[in-house]
Amino acid sequence: MADLIVPKQSDVLLLIDIQNDFCPGGGLAVPQGDAVVPLINRLAARFAHVILTQDWHPAGHRSFASSHGGRAPFETLEMAYGAQTLWPDHCVQGTPGADFHKDLDTARGELIVRKGFRPEIDSYSAFFENDRTTPTGLTGYLRTRGFERVFLAGLAADFCVHFSAVDAVREGFGALVIEDACRAIDLDNSLKAAKSAMAGAGVELIDSARILA
Question: What percent of the chain has pLDDT over 90?
Fold first, then answer.
């Protein structure tokens, strides 16, 4: 087994979008999305610092297929900021689908980063909107608090976890994705592409056993 990882005070566990709409029965269900919750709760107990992200779309968001007449979910549409996958309506502000999964232990979360709230632009990353330039403010928060490494877990591995991890490296942090604490949509082989992109960016892909053993 690879070396055991003991989280430090300068490490933070970033939990990505563990919300009802990304779990079975939700508007944009990730296969077995709820299966990560017990493992993530165990992992969170090993970290001194935990941050959560929450997809938080207004009704009629431009990334929703329903906002474009005749378009179907999972089609791609060119937006002002580039290609955008059109999604089923999900994580609409104030709805049960936007709530965190009921079994997720959020009590130790020190910050909740809400993203995707701008009506005209989607946001996969915890750091930037999909134009790749509009910041969420997470970088400044992490730097101010002296964090150096970001461990990521949650939903979905091939979209919001992937983009968040790559941006963490881009912003000067170490990034480690806990693979078995994530689940993927795997749209048109997107999981394989995401893993390749993360590895190429310097993201380390690890197993939870390295933390929990």
Answer: 98
